[in-house]
Amino acid sequence: xxxxxxxxxxxxxxxxxxxxxxxxxxxxxxxxxxxxxxxxxxxxxxxxxxxxxxxxxxxxxxxxxxxxxxxxxxxxxxxxxxxxxxxxxxxxxxxxxxxxxxxxxxxxxxxxxxxxxxxxxxxxxxxxxxxxxxxxxxxxxxxxxxxxxxxxxxxxxxxxxxxxxxxxxxxxxxxxxxxxxxxxxxxxxxxxxxxxxxxxxxxxxxxxxxxxxxxxxxxxxxxxxxxxxxxxxxxxxxxxxxxxxxxxxxxxxxxxxxxxxxxxxxxxxxxxxxxxxxxxxxxxxxxxxxxxxxxxxxxxxxxxxxxxxxxxxxxxxxxxxxxxxxx
Amino acid sequence: xxxxxxxxxxxxxxxxxxxxxxxxxxxxxxxxxxxxxxxxxxxxxxxxxxxxxxxxxxxxxxxxxxxxxxxxxxxxxxxxxxxxxxxxxxxxxxxxxxxxxxxxxxxxxxxxxxxxxxxxxxxxxxxxxxxxxxxxxxxxxxxxxxxxxxxxxxxxxxxxxxxxxxxxxxxxxxxxxxxxxxxxxxxxxxxxxxxxxxxxxxxxxxxxxxxxxxxxxxxxxxxxxxxxxxxxxxxxxxxxxxxxxxxxxxxxxxxxxxxxxxxxxxxxxxxxxxxxxxxxxxxxxxxxxxxxxxxxxxxxxxxxxxxxxxxxxxxxxxxxxx
Lengths: 327, 322
Known about the structure:
- The complex is a heterodimer.
- Chain A has helices spanning 47-54, 82-88, 100-103, 110-122, 126-139, 145-149, 158-170, 188-205, 216-222, 240-245, 250-258, 304-308; strands at 5-16, 19-31, 36-40, 63-72, 75-76, 93-96, 176-180, 208-213, 225-230, 233-239, 314-317, 320-322.
- Chain A is 33% helix and 24% strand.
- In chain A, helix 4 packs parallel to helix 7 and helix 7 runs parallel beside helix 8.
- Chain B has a single domain (7-95, 175-317), classed as Rossmann fold, CATH 3.40.50.
- Chain B is built from nine helices and twelve strands.
- Chain B has helices spanning 56-63, 86-93, 113-123, 129-142, 159-171, 189-206, 217-223, 241-246, 251-259; strands at residues 7-20, 25-40, 45-49, 71-76, 79-80, 96-99, 177-181, 209-214, 226-231, 234-240, 309-312, 315-317.
- In chain B, the strands form two sheets. An eight-stranded mixed β-sheet of chain B has the order 6-7-8-3-9-10-12-11, sandwiched between helices.
- In chain B, helix 6 (189-206) links the parallel strand 7 and strand 8 (209-214).
- In chain B, helix 3 (113-123) crosses helix 4, helix 3 (113-123) runs parallel beside helix 5 (159-171) and helix 4 (129-142) packs across helix 5.
- The two termini of chain B are 27 Å apart.
- Classes of the chains: A alpha/beta, B alpha/beta.
């Protein structure tokens, strides 16, 4: 099966007064229909900029996509003109954001906002579009969709707004959904509902999902394939089972060891509190990256070579890639 | 085990009036905290978990009397503090401190970090400027910051370092009790671990007690000795950590635990999801607040509010079905 979305060699920089900020460097991945690819990493690792680059929503200037291609069904999104891109956004590739309150227009009813999408992309009449909007709200399991369609975003709870945003994103059945931390602002019981919903709609519509998150629990539950980013670059990539069973990069291993677990839920006896493993130091500034491996100053396994030469991103085991001299 | 708890809270309530119209008449109340009882011993951490809007942060602030309670009693080492005046509260305030969630808004951007940490000392007239500076330097070292950073402004610190400054400020007056209100929620996971470890080290060394407020069950399980689960202003379950996480008895606790995504793809989870949203604390549902979302709810749950009852030593649950 040919992947729906194929990103290769994507690099995005920002020209700032403090110098060139290399937010995303040489990032490649591909996603098949109906599959979820998770991009994980901490703040400032470039995961959101990667997502925005796919959508061509990087403000230029100061931003600039310096190289790479983003092929959606074979068509390079980085090559098309802005007018074409506008027709593709929403109809072929759509995005949902972390904070639905800022992503929705506070002055329009939710139904109207969804209908607008349908009218614009499918050239539907306002009546048809309106019906589709209500249908979509029903689809994302919003109770009383007819009434809710007439409500404004502020009248809804956070979970409900996120559902409305998903309804809007999926209204024109895009092939790819880019979800940037879609549940980070939500409570855990609501998060579980939204993750289930995205999964169900994905299998129903065959949508490919690029899920941006910092939460390894969310990754384990939803993704088939995982890309780990650090300081703008991919440091590891593998199927989800591999990532958790045999993490290779010291950064990923550190991350996995630094999160406290809900032990009882996994049938483990709770003993006296143990110290969590820390990753010392902080993420380097993207305009002042260390030479060699960007993780080397924080890495416990770092050796001389790591501080000098950047490790290539290469195949280390069956379908398991990492960028580390020591892995 | 007949020790007096450091903090003893009984039937604490906080209602915020909703005022409307020209005369600002009270038209209703937000039942933010609706009869909460708990105690914390010296050197102990009580984890307070719940979803947004359940009143957990209000509890933290009311316990410190940063917000005045509507009713109920708060005892600190056996002495009631709810009726104390400003001057009587002052020496007590030295013993009770708070660390907030957002290290960006809880530090004055125009003050140097050293002055921020030294301010409680100044306010309470501890030592002369020289002593204070030495004390601040020691606090910086204690929380893992360099003495040179005393001259820096908050924006020059990373999120984790800022939280260390907040913790140093809370420690300045040698308190016995700290309310930690979502202290690691705004931090990246690798930094989260650093701050959690710091809090636990400090507890061991200084015999601190924490009221650790969080929505993150994994973090609460890690750091707490006992845990209270809140839902819409009430505690629905209260037990030692091991009991609560191994055998949750309240359907809400069960649902919360089931909803946490686990970082292990080999685990197939049961899909026992709770539907719906948390209802408004302005008009909480009658009877058990959780009944509209509860999959076990019976007729009785809709009319009669369950009270916390002890079902095993040290394990209390507010549910008709247990």
